[in-house]
Design brief:
single chain; alpha+beta; 5-stranded mixed β-sheet; 5-stranded antiparallel β-sheet; 47 helices; 46% helix
Length: 1325
């Protein structure tokens, strides 16, 4: 499952980090090796120093067999005699003969008078000669030509000088299959010839860029400058004298020689790494020339005489005779990669080495200056000057120095002896300790040179190299050739690993004293690392040596230990007897001047995905032991440390190397190219693969030597022996995983380099390219899984883009990096190829077969597919069912137990595992919704159905695809589709879905987001369409009650009304609670209607009441109960009519309150009217009529007696027509008898009211009652005979009572007349 994969990747990253931290410590350990300055104890404060006078400087190798001691430095590889055809020419020599070596082209040369012969010194073959000169050859040199001057077939320039001319010949080779220097050819016609002007050239050298310098017998340094063609400003070739002024060409050479001392140049040396030239004269003077920062200029710096150097050396070593310091017989340039501050080594005839600097006292932390002086820094005495040894070299006449290795030839009793002095066996000691070897030569040495190779492709010449023991696995043994009169003597300088191999062969891998001594000298962990070179790399060629080395590795590798103070304090041991070596001294140099002595912190993690690449700080810091921490409780075994040392040394060249660099191929556009080429990748991969095989075959690396780990009873603190063994076991397991992973990553990188790496990188996004530029190989190895996946995809896509089959590259990637490119990756690549092929297929059956095949491949490897990319391709080819099938299968693999669906249904927020499964499945279903997006966005899409080709709109296709999706019994897939339909507002289509999962989704969605009106709206419609009216009514009720401003009061009333309708449509009788709910809905609707009336009233107050707007918003925002409506709105805003409505709704019966409400209603209406008399009264009655009709059925809201009294009082005040009020009540269809009784009671109460007397209208009620009876008279036909007789009797009694009261009153004639008329009418009825 994907979660398991994520956890596994995190665990693998932690394991890789553990191994990487050990590797970092090993790199720091190697970087802290003492530099040449450290070992010579040179610092700005000390001044020139000396060494070689102590027994420690040239220690005895106690314990090694004498046969090994005698060849610890050099081993004769072969002795090749001079070719017979050359020996014949010796008999014809007349006056002059010279011999020399061109190791650049594996040739030796011999001049006999004016002829030169060249042959291969390793086999004495391929003899070539040149006899086109007439003068005796004085000096010979081989120079690499300048770029662009000669034809490409001119590989070198052979420079021959005579007393008259300097002749330059072209050298070409007929390249063989494997050897580019197989057959030499000397161009017969000279390239150019320059007169010497009397100068006798003695030495010829060339720079790496093709400059040509010659030293002469007159002590001058000449340069031959040349160019492709002659120009107006100069000849094609000319000779310059750099030892004189710029006007020296005006003075003939013979004249200049007559004016100067005779101190000819015998040696010219060039340091191409610093662009400095040195010359040595016959009298031992050394002159320095600066060739400029780029090596294109020249200037004289200083010339130091031999006497000055001798005096300086004697001042440093005052106990010795100054005769030891002269004459100087040889000089050698110290390259920048050996030491940035020591520039030159001068050797005297007695073997004393003078270490010189061109920048005065060495300032360690200052930038490198151009040469300005030549100062003595150190005097190194040869062997024989200590108290215990007296055998010294004498009569040195030839020397070769490089990389702390010195070869010199001395003459002793007319015999030539080769001295080899080297510090390779003691790289980590704080002082310069050297081993010596003497080899007697067959005859006088005529020439000596090193056979140089391109030792490390990844090392820049300006980088300071670590000791040989660190890089011996990557460099072949150094070879030297000495040319004598007998032939070529070829020797090999033994590396520490070569010496170990010789010991293993001699002892047949037995546990001998010699092996013990070797491991003691080298230090166990260093020797274990050396053993691994033989154990892994020798296995294919020499199985016996590999077995011997493996056995020694385990025998001397030791076991881990519980660290004790005694063990930790061994770091502080000092030198004892030089014959007793203290291996632990190698761990800590005396001084820390090394430019490598710096910490190398782990860099941040890189997360490269298809969308984003950001640096992330490693989240896990595992507890790890410290290999070299003296405070650690663990002391790992030497085999553990040796393994990590060896891995660190293999990866050292690339560990902090940037992966890519900018480069241009056409001079216009820049590309990102790999900093490693395929050959360099193959070189590192070879070592890693060999070590991986060793680790796989050596089962002891996974477990301790004892099959059972017993608990140690001897505890130191809280750490036991079992803890230490387990810690080492975990560390070794981490190393095995790291080596395997690194081999796969570099194998992949090699494949990428073979497939136009720059073009692959060009397809990356700009931000991803920038990230790659800041990424080193260490980051790729530790955190680059996503980067590797992206690179693999890019490589596969390049094949697909070229319409090429991916089978071959998939097979190769599976073989090289199976963990980075798994079976499922190969299947996906093949599926991509099939899908690409299907695009171009027109036959529908064939296309369907291809799509089905691709789908089956993808299903077999789900979920380990790039689901998004593969589904996009299926969708592009209208294979929608394939996308659905692939998504569902992937979800099944991710969540086989359906944990995500269980989480969705239960909604337990504490179920983190369930949530993770749910989230992953929803993420998977995004490919389905993305497909729906694509379909939905289409306008007209041509679909083929049953061979026909109708035009089907994207909307119709969407419905069809959704129908197909919902047929799958995957509820979470349904949920994803429902979400998508909601986002597209496909509410109608959603409601028509009959799947029960829709109800679950809508219920869950509304629970999660109860304020989502759209969801609830769809839910009730869904229920209604499925005849579940009761459920729909409840949803509608909830909708109406939602506390949200997006709904207004009108909509809420609509929801309530629809809810009530749904309830009345359903069979409410079968469940009692539904009947109760119906009653509640009815009451709620009534209250809502009251709220609506209040809202309308408040809206009318807007602009007149400052709180009206807020009240309107509140009333629209939710439904209030009846009490809230009364207190918060009706009472607050004096909404009297609304109060009456609230009382009616609530059925409240407070007579005084109701009368007060009516009083205010009438008063407000009276104030609102602007007319007078009858009009005003009519307006008031109209208002009362509307309210009475509204509340006519109410038993409390219409106080008739109060209204009669109030309205008649207002009528009297307004002096309105007395018939208006009675007729008004009659028009309201109140019973006549009720009205007569009410008026009688009201008239009786009015007798006590002084108002009527004050208004002089005491007969108002009499007129009103007369009008009331008269109204009955006019409407008597409406009543039945029984009711009519009853009402006539009441009316007659009323009229009689009124007449009896009026007869005694003045001014009542008109009323009496009216009443009598009414009485007569009643009598006739």
């Amino acid at each position: 499952m994907e979660q398991t994969m994520d956890n596994s990747r995190a665990l693998n990253t932690e394991v890789l980090q553990l191994a990487a931290r050990h590797i970092e410590k090993c790199l720091i350990k190697d970087n802290n090796a003492p530099t040449l300055l450290d070992q010579l104890n040179i610092n700005p404060q000390s001044g020139p120093t000396a060494s070689g006078l102590s027994d420690h400087d040239y220690p005895a190798l106690v314990g090694l067999p004498q046969s090994i001691i005698s060849r610890t430095q050099m081993k004769t590889l072969s002795k090749v005699p001079l070719p017979p055809e050359i020996m014949e020419h010796f008999n014809h020599m007349q006056c002059h003969c010279m011999m020399g070596l061109f190791t650049e082209i594996n040739r030796a040369w011999l001049t006999i008078d004016s002829d030169i012969y060249v042959w291969t010194y390793d086999d004495g073959g391929d003899v070539a000669y040149y006899d086109g000169l007439n003068e005796t050859i004085i000096s010979v040199g081989l120079v690499k030509p300048k770029s662009g001057v000669f034809q490409n077939f001119i590989n070198y320039l052979l420079v021959l000088t005579t007393a008259v001319d300097v002749v330059v010949l072209g050298v070409t080779f007929a390249a063989g299959d494997e050897d580019s220097l197989k057959e030499i050819q000397l161009v017969s016609d000279p390239v150019f010839t320059i007169p010497t002007d009397g100068a006798m050239m003695t030495s010829i050298v060339g720079t790496a860029t093709g400059r040509m310098f010659l030293g002469s017998k007159d002590g001058c340094l000449y340069e031959i400058t040349y160019q492709a063609e002659s120009t107006w400003f100069g000849k094609r070739c000319k000779k310059l004298n750099h030892s004189t002024s710029k006007l020296s060409f005006l003075v003939p050479s013979f004249a200049y020689a007559a004016m100067t001392d005779d101190d000819g140049i015998v040696q010219v040396v060039i340091d191409d790494t610093r662009h400095i030239l040195y010359t040595l004269t016959e009298k031992g003077a050394i002159e320095v020339y600066d060739l400029g920062e780029n090596g294109t200029s020249i200037s004289r710096v200083i010339k130091v005489s031999q006497n000055q150097l001798v005096q300086q050396a004697h001042n440093v070593v005052k106990t010795l005779d100054s005769q030891n310091f002269h004459p100087i017989v040889s000089i050698s340039a110290v390259e920048l990669c050996e030491s940035p501050r020591i520039n030159l080594v001068a050797l005297t005839q007695s073997g004393v080495r003078l270490y010189l600097s061109t920048s005065g006292q060495a300032q360690v932390n200052m930038p490198l200056p151009r040469p300005s002086t030549l100062a003595l820094q150190h005097v190194r005495m040869p062997p024989g000057y200590s108290a215990s040894t007296h055998y010294r070299p004498k009569n040195i006449h030839m020397a070769e120095y490089r990389d702390r290795n010195l070869l010199m030839v001395s003459t002793v009793n007319e015999k030539e002896v080769l001295w080899s002095i080297s510090s390779d066996l003691f790289p980590f000691y704080p002082i310069l300790m050297e081993a010596t070897t003497n080899i007697e030569l067959d005859g006088p040495a005529l020439a000596m040179a090193e056979i140089k190779y391109n030792t490390n492709m990844l090392l820049q010449p300006t980088q300071q190299v670590p000791p040989l023991i660190v890089r011996q696995h990557s460099e072949p043994p150094r070879k030297f050739v000495i040319l004598t009169s007998q032939g070529a003597h070829i020797l090999m300088k033994l590396r520490p690993v070569d010496l170990l191999k010789q010991l293993l062969v001699d002892t047949r891998g037995q546990d001998s004293d010699a092996l013990k001594a070797y491991f003691n000298i080298q230090n166990d962990e260093q020797a274990c690392a050396t053993s691994l070179i033989l154990a892994s790399l020798e296995a294919p060629q020499n199985l016996d040596v590999a077995d011997y080395a493996t056995n020694a590795f385990f025998v001397f590798g030791g076991e881990p230990k519980v660290a004790t103070p005694a063990i930790n304090n061994t770091m502080n041991q000092t030198f004892g007897n030089p014959s007793i070596f203290l291996p632990n001294m190698m761990s800590t140099p005396m001084q820390q001047h090394s430019p490598f002595a710096q910490t190398m912190p782990m860099t941040p993690q890189v997360n490269f995905t298809a969308n984003s690449i950001t640096p992330v700080v490693p989240h896990f810091q595992p507890n790890m032991s410290h290999m070299y921490d003296p405070n650690s409780q663990y002391q790992f075994s030497s085999k553990h440390n040796g393994l990590y040392l060896y891995v660190a040394r293999i990866l050292r060249p690339i560990w902090n190397l940037r992966c890519v660099e900018k480069m241009t191929f056409d001079g216009k556009r820049f590309y990102l190219t790999s900093t490693l080429n395929s050959e360099e990748c193959a070189w590192i991969l070879c070592h890693l693969t060999s070590l991986r095989i060793f680790l796989q075959q050596t089962t002891q690396m996974a477990i301790c030597n004892n099959t059972t780990v017993a608990k140690s009873t001897n505890k130191t603190g809280n750490c036991t022996m079992q803890d230490v063994q387990l810690e080492e076991r975990h560390s070794l397991d981490a190393l095995k995983m790291f080596v395997d992973h690194a081999a796969q990553v570099l194998g992949l990188w090699k494949v990428l380099c073979e497939h136009q790496f720059h073009m692959l990188m060009d397809t990356f996004q700009a931000e991803h390219q920038q990230v790659m530029q800041n990424t080193c190989f260490k980051d790729i190895l530790l955190y680059g899984h996503d980067v590797c996946a992206t690179l693999i995809n890019t490589l596969i896509n390049s094949y697909l883009g070229d319409n090429a089959s991916v089978d071959s590259i998939s097979s190769k990637l599976r073989e090289i990096c199976p963990n980075l490119y798994k079976n499922e990756d190969a299947a996906c690549s093949k599926a991509n190829e099939i899908l690409k092929t299907a695009k171009n297929v027109n036959n529908l059956d064939e296309k369907e077969e291809l799509l089905s095949s691709a789908l089956q491949l993808c299903i077999e490897v789900v979920p380990n597919v790039n689901l998004k990319e593969i589904c996009e391709q299926f969708s592009t080819q209208k294979s929608y069912n394939a996308v659905i099938m692939l998504a569902t299968k992937c979800a099944e693999k991710i969540d086989p137990e359906n944990v995500g669906e269980h989480f969705y249904k239960n909604g337990d927020q504490n179920d983190q595992e369930g949530y993770q499964y749910y989230a992953k499945r929803i993420e998977i279903y995004k490919v389905v919704t993305a497909m729906l997006d694509d379909i939905y966005s289409q306008n007209d899409v041509t679909q083929n159905i049953n061979g026909q080709v109708p035009v089907e709109t994207g909307e119709n296709i969407t419905r069809r695809v959704i129908s197909s999706i919902l047929k799958h019994k995957d509820e979470l897939l349904h949920i994803a589709v429902y979400e998508w339909m909601m986002s597209k507002q496909m509410n109608g289509e959603l409601i028509s879905v009959t799947e029960p999962t829709l109800e679950t989704y809508l219920l869950k969605a509304t629970q999660h987001n109860p304020s989502n009106i759209s969801l609830m709206d769809i839910l009730w419609k869904y229920y209604e369409s499925n005849n579940n009216h009761a459920a729909a009514a409840k949803v509608l009720n909830n909708l109406a009650s939602v506390n949200q401003t997006s709904l207004n009061m009108k909509t809420r009333l609509s929801y309530l009304a629809r809810s009530l309708m749904c309830m009345r449509s359903d069979k409410i009788g079968y469940a009692p609670y539904l009947g109760v709910f119906l009653r509640e809905l009815e009451d709620k609707l009534e209250v809502a209607k009251v709220q609506e009336r209040i809202l309308e009233a408040i809206v009318n107050l807007k602009g007149r009441h400052m709180e009206a707007d807020a009240a309107e918003k509140m009333l629209n925002g939710k439904l209030f109960d009846i009490t809230q409506l009364y207190e918060d709105f009706a009472e607050k805003f004096n909404l009297w009519e609304c109060k009456l409505a609230i009382i009616d709704c609530a059925g409240y019966s407070d007579k005084l309150l109701i009368e007060n409400i009516w009083r205010n209603i009438l008063q407000n209406e009276l104030c609102r009217s602007t007319s007078s008399g009858n009009d005003k009264m009519i307006q008031i009655l109209t208002k009362v009529k509307s309210l009475v009709r509204l509340y006519k059925t109410s038993s409390t809201c219409i106080p008739l007696d109060y209204l009669v009294q109030e309205l008649e009082l207002i009528s009297a005040k307004l002096k309105a027509d007395t018939t208006l009020v009675p007729n008004f009540f009659v028009s309201l269809e109140y019973p006549i008898d009720l009205l007569i009784n009410t008026y009688n009671e009201s008239m009786i109460r009015s007798l006590k009211d002084n108002f009527w007397l004050a208004e002089e209208n005491e007969f108002h009620y009499s007129e009103a009652m007369a009008a009331l009876v008269n109204a009955f008279v006019h409407l008597h036909d409406k009543y039945s005979n029984v009711e009519k007789r009853k009402l006539i009797a009441i009316s007659q009694d009323t009229v009689a009572g009124l007449l009896s009261n009026l007869y005694s009153k003045p001014n009542t004639e008109h009323i009496i007349t009216l009443l009598r008329s009414i009485q007569n009418k009643l009598s006739r009825m």
